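input
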Amino acid sequence: MALIQHTNIQVRFDQQAENSASYVFPFIEQTHTINAATTVMEVGCSEGGVLLPFLKRGSQCLGVDLSPERIESSKELLKEYVETGQATMICKNIYDDDFVEKYANSFDIIILKDVIEHVPEQQKFIPHLTRFLRPGGQIFFGFPPWYMPFGGHQQVCASKLASKLPYYHILPRGMYIALLKMMGESQTTIDTLVEIWDTSITIGQFKRYIKEAGLKVVNKQHYLINPIYKYKFGLEPRKQAAFVEHIPYVRNFLTTCVYYTVSL
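output
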């Protein structure tokens, strides 16, 4: 059953902002100073709510997204910061030559919140992000690992069964599609979920891609209960037991969210 944040822009923005202020911002601040001199880019910014705590601290922020509609919404929701020039919100592909030329070596902090699992060719994408870092800069990744109960984002499904049933997204692609059809999901929803199936990322894959890109982990936190499940399922966030991280098979199926900051 689709949740209110899937259709209500203001609710989605408010949840983004609250989650960022309570979890993302404090996590990043553990390893990087955030003040008026800090430059921040969020890739896949959606409505821009994640940037709000950084803007309130005085940081100069750029939000970039491939959706024109979401960028227009972000400009309205962050209007006071856009009008002063503190926030710039643009619809752009960060691979574009003019974007690289303009923003190379420009940011202290790059944020990808619930984005990397949607990106194709992650082994190419992650090294590309480093082109935009200033010396000493850090990249934040927060994402739901593929093998966790709702790693397929099936909570967006219209039917109650399809949206509440865990783990079935890890079925073979054809079986997954057939099951979604049996549960009455629209072709649009199926296409969206299959895209995520195609770009899924596990904790092990992420760690390998980071290493291959020459990046080092600065900070990390695994969650048994994802902080955003407060909005989706009414569950209070809960950090993962430290020992679980060292048992890959168990970790993969029981960790619903990971936060990492990495640097060159």
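quick obs: The chain has twelve helices and eight strands.
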